[in-house]
Structure formats: structure tokens, C-alpha cells
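Figure 2 data, in text form.
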Amino acid sequence: MTSRSNRAGRERRLINGDAKSNDRTASYYLQSSEWPADSPQLFREGSDAVGRFVDDLSGFSLLTDVFGIGSNAPRNYVQRSDVDDALAIAIGRGQHVVIHGSSKQGKTCLRKNVLDEGKCLVLTCMPGWTLEELHGQILRKAGYSNLRSRTVTSTTRSGLSGKVGAKAKAGGAGEVSAEMGASRERGSQVEQLSEPLDIDLSDANDVISALASIGFNKLVVLEDFHYLGVEAQRQFAVALKAYWDSRQVQVAIVGVWLDRNKLVQFNGDLAGRIASINADHWSPSKLDDVIAGGEEMLRIKFCPKFKRDLLEECYQSVWIVQEVCFAACQRAGIVSGEHGRDVPTIGEGFDVRGAVAELVNASSSRFEAFVTSFSSGGRSDSGVHKWITAAVLVSDPNDLLVGLSKSDMKTFIDRHRDGPPVPDSSLTRTLTSLSSLQARLRINPIIFDYDRSTGLLNIVDRSFLLWLKYARDDLSRLLLAAGLPKSFVRDWMKSNNHTGRHRPASNQLANQFAASPESETRPYWPEDGG
């Protein structure tokens, strides 16, 4: 088991200078020699060697610290050099970074694992925020106030003062004059007045100056960036260039999409200034490492058939792997690594397919609501949204793993929808606004995303793909729920042997992907020896 754990890597939670809070964890330290000397150290402090492991496994791990999904990075976190190290290097170089990928594929865990949370300003974006609202929230969380205070002191006086004098004149006549007055200080009053400062929240330069005025030196992390509208994303991409030029504000963006050039397409000046970190891909061998790491932490062993079945059924979803392992341990009564000297074998006779189906079915009502609301949620009279939904529903889930091309969708829509062909420009506009529509419909996390650089519609929620796989018997009902004509549903089901699934001939990428014997998505069989 030791050799497997070396490959898996021990957990990479990083100590923040306080051994007491992490004395049961193995730790991985990251630093970068390229980090500018006058910039804040964003990595957690520790060893002077990149990739050096420090073992402290004196305590037993809890099941909830290893398997399942929690708010912190799990103890069986597995390093992916093309992801974790790439993030560390990009931050060290002072680049902005975009961490992107499907939902529940470890984006936030990656960030928490590599970066010191205490040296980050973390903000979760909300649907509908404008650029001004986003900047305002950043300033507010940074502790900046747009009110300038000044002190006013006032003094009140009261009393009487006077002079009396007499002047004699010749002839005995005289003139008397009097001037009275008195003075006494009664007290003073100090008053604090606040005046609004003139700051333009649409101007990145004003925001930079405001942050500099309070000595702000943290990394700005924007979670759920995909919830912003397209225009707000585009405007912020322009602001990122100003942040880069100032060398005072560095930003990490976390979003659900697969397009590695999403922000560069909004602003070409970001090329070379922003690093794209794709956290989506989990190869079968890395998922096997996740399982092996959990085995070591909990001092257990999963039976070979359990692991084979899980890696075949999970659709490359690390969330599915974590949750099914958690369920298997629960059923075996494993709550921690403290269970005697013996190493129990877990998963014998466990129904992996049933466990995956149960996980997916828990979201069935959400997915069905998505099909209905998305299909009718567009403002277009052409009804193109429901035909996009139909193209996804009738596709083989294995093809959807690599995306559905715009050309395939257009061919499908023009062939089956009554009326003239949908204009290519109209379809492109519809596809590029999918994220905004889903945010407007309060679909969280989003399910469809369009990659403009590849022309592919991607499913960015792996559990939706699994749901399609297990819901194939309900396909006709789902097509009707999406608002498709009854005649289309009847004819489609009849012509596709009642399964409804097809493999689009023009999708060469999907066909190559399915045919490749070296494809990372093909079932991976770990050696029986574990």
C-alpha cells in the first residue's frame, strides 16, 4: 500500500504557520522563486523546496475528512502536476489566473490547497451583478469606505465687557461715555463629519487607487464568475488589463466553463497576462490515486471489483468517486482509521451502479426542472432553446463528454424544426448567452456552456450526463417536457429503435474519441494487486 500512496501523493493542505491547527495532516509547501520581492507572499509558509512532503500521520483520519464532499480539501487530495503546479507558477509570476472546469471537479479545493486562504480576499459573484456592483463588493470586503471623515471643533462664548470714562469740558460741561462688555468661554464641541468621496466604480483606475490607499495586498479571488452576465464579464476582462499594469491587484477567477480562452476572447490584451488552469480533467489513474490515498488514510482496502466498477461508472467525476467510496465505508461501519490492527476489505458485494444511480437520482427533480425551464426560457420566438435541449437529450452521453458541435446542432435543428433554417449568427448568439440565461433562471450550478473557441456545447455538470444515462427509458417524456412536438417525439423514438440515442456522423471529434484505444475516458482497470 505504501507504493500506491507515494503515487497518489499525501494530502497537500498547507500549514499557515500554525502546526496546532494541522498537526494531524501531511503537508505540502509551495513557494516560487519568481515571486516579485515587493509582492505579498500568497503561498503558505513552510519548506524551501517545492514539492517537499512533511509527514505527520500520528492521528487517525475521520471518514468525513477523507471521502465525501466537504468545505475543505479532503485529506486524500491528489496532486495533478499540470494543474496544481501550473497554478502555483502562474501566481508566482504575478499573472492573473482563471481556474475553470465542470461543476464539482475540484476547482475550489485546488485553490484552497495551493493558496493561503488568509492571504486571499474571496468573493462569491451573484447573478446579475454589474461591473460597478462587483467593484463595490470588492472594495467593501477589502475594508474600504467611500466616506471621508473630518473633525470640526466649535467654541461658544457668553458674558459682558465694558469701559466707563468721563471727559470734562471747559465751562463745566461734561461728556460721559460708557462701553460695556464681558466675556467668558463656556466650552467647545467636537463633531465628526463624513463626506462621500468621488470614486467611479466603473473605472478600474479608481478602484486600484482606493485599494492602494488602504494598503491592500491580498489576492482577489472571484468564485462563481460564470454567474455574471456576458457584458459584466467582458468589462471586467478590460479591467484586468489595468490591474496588471498597476502591478498592485492580482486576481484569480473561478468559473464553470471549459473554454480556456474565455476571457482572452473578451480582451485580447490579456494574452500572456492571464493563465488558464483547467481543473476539469481527472484521468482514471488519478481517480485511482484518490481511492488509494483514502485507503491509506483510513487503513482499509477496497476490493478490486469495487474499484473497477466505480472507475467505469463515474464518468471521470471525482465527486462520484468520493461519494461512492464514502457510502461503501459507511455501509461497512468505517468512521475513522482507528478500527484495530486488521486492514478490512471494503466493497465486496457493493452495488456501485446502484449507488451512482441513487446519487444522480437525488438531482432528478432539479434536472427535469432545468429541461423545462431552459427550453422555454429563451426570449426568441424561434424556439431554438428547446431544440438545443432536444439535441442534447437524444445524443449519446459518451459523445457529450467531448461536447456537441454547433454544426451538428444546426443540422439537427434545421432538419426537424418547421420553418426556415436557423441563421448561423442567431444560433451563435443563443449559444454564447447560455450561461447568462441559466443564471437568470437561477440554475445553480449551470449545466450547459458554450466554448466559442472550439464551437462545442459542453455539459459542465457530470451528474447531468449520468442522469441522461440512467433516464434513457424516460426520453420520450423528457422530450415532451421540453416542449418538442408530439409528432417529432413519436417519429424520433420509432426511427432510433426506441432508445432515442444516436451518434452524429459529422462529429468527428466524438467518433475519434470513442474509437481511440488510448482514450482517457475508456474504462480503467487497476491491477488486482491494488
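Caption note: Residues 1-41, 43-58, 156-184, 498-530 have pLDDT under 50 and may be disordered.
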